[in-house]
Amino acid sequence: MPLLDVSKSSSHPSDDEQKIFQYIDHHQDTFVQSLSEWVAVESDSIQPHLRGNITEMVKIAANSLQALGATVELKNVSSQDEPYGQNLSLPPVILAELGKDTAKPTVCFYGHLDVMPAKKEDGWKTDPYTLTEMDGKLYGRGATDNKGPVLAWINAVGTFIALNMTLPVNVKFLLEGMEEAGSHGLEDLLKENEGFFSDVMYIVISDNIWLSNKKPALTYGTRGNAAFFVEVECCKKDLHSGSFGGIIHEAMFDLVALLDSLVDSSGRILIPGIYDDVANVTNEEMKLYAPIDFNFEEHKANIGVKEFLYKTKEDILLNLWRNPSLSIHGIEGAFSEPGIKTVIPSKVIGKFSIRQVPNMNLPTVESQVKEHLKRVFSKRNSPNKLTVSMQVAAKPWIANIKNLQYEAARRAIKTVFQQDPDMIRDGSTIPVARMFEDITKKSVMMFPIGAADDGEHSQNEKINRLNYINGAKVFASFLLEISKLHSGSNLMTTS
């Protein structure tokens, strides 16, 4: 049975779209089989000993693109320095292109082929590297992040080829294998291959998810990230708490007090000045929030919490997307195994991050954090050694939703999913969006197809069969729409 009854679509598909959608429906099992083969490759970029699997995955993806008739280059990138003196080679990056018609716009799709670590004993219901379908859900590591969306793009382009239909645009692919580990080498590669982007007008990234389990969305902003280590050292070695407890300034006491000074119980950051540069909310922006589908109970069930900090949809979305937040992630140096180890740790490191938003400035945030922690520490009159360092510095990203490709994507979503998309921001940080925009100076859009409950990075990651198959349809429709809008735009400019 087709996943989309086009006769009931609120925006009727064209004849070409009808053919494309029917082909995708009839070949959906083949597309699922391809995803199964991709999920089976444990292309984990976090664990160095699995690096060879990523190279294997890159070659599989390159073969898929070559089968479409694309010109494919595997670009080597510099090696990666690891702790303890290791120097690791990096998997190549795919640069592929299909079509060089100067009369057509060129769309470049970015995606990644690596995944986060996963083991069945971590709490998976199924083997994470065996794609398993249950109740219309396709479970497997990378199913939604990001192998499913990458394949949906390949399937969309492949459908035009299979039907002997002329591609409405030129298409390029940039696929990497180190995104989950920080996209090592990607920035240098973009700078060294500026010619690859010379004719590109639009860059599309499909590496996030909807806000809802069922309603599609387009993403126009992400938060940045400033991650910090705060280290306190009290002695040169761990000490017996019975022999020394009560007569020294323990590092853990200082660290807990420092971490407690960062945020209050309502979630408000307590660092002076941190909110000073946050961009004001405009009336135009607030109008985007009203039609957004946000189901409180659904979201609580998705993440397993009893209550949110805020009671209204608007407050939750404002504090998720466009206000900064601070999270404490852990303490290194403290005993964390089962049972109790009665020692006083000599050195402990607290780890926290601040998700920043426009118009916050990274050097300013760094200065504010360091000054605040030093001020709190000084009040404790502790002889211990304090060190504060910023480990990650990623900028926020925001797009113009009036851009042509956002309009094309809205139309494609209306045709395939029979409803207008939510226009959303993403509270997380996706550095490649800002990286592409800054280096290439091209228009960037985030175009997700995964549902809010897909569990990216989590146990039992999945993508719904419906989302995966309709994802191919909406990407194909988008290519047709961007071609039409681009042509219309050129006609208006010429006239």
Describe this structure in words.
With 495 residues, the chain is of the alpha+beta class. It folds into two domains: 6-222 and 396-494, Aminopeptidase (3-Layer(aba) Sandwich), CATH 3.40.630.10; 225-278 and 323-394, Alpha-Beta Plaits, CATH 3.30.70.360. The chain has 14 helices and 20 strands. It has helices spanning 15-26, 28-39, 51-67, 147-162, 186-192, 241-244, 251-260, 283-287, 296-303, 313-322, 362-378, 404-417, 431-440, 465-494, and strands spanning 71-75, 80-81, 87-88, 93-98, 106-112, 132-134, 137-139, 170-176, 202-205, 217-222, 225-233, 239-240, 325-332, 343-344, 347-355, 385-394, 397-398, 422-426, 443-446, 462-464. The strands form six sheets. The chain has a six-stranded mixed beta sheet with strand order 1-4-8-5-9-19, with helices on both faces. A four-stranded antiparallel beta sheet has the order 13-15-11-16. A three-stranded antiparallel beta sheet has the order 6-7-20. Helix 2 (28-39) runs antiparallel to helix 4, helix 4 (147-162) packs across helix 14 and helix 12 packs across helix 14. The radius of gyration is 24 Å and the shape is globular. The two termini are 46 Å apart.
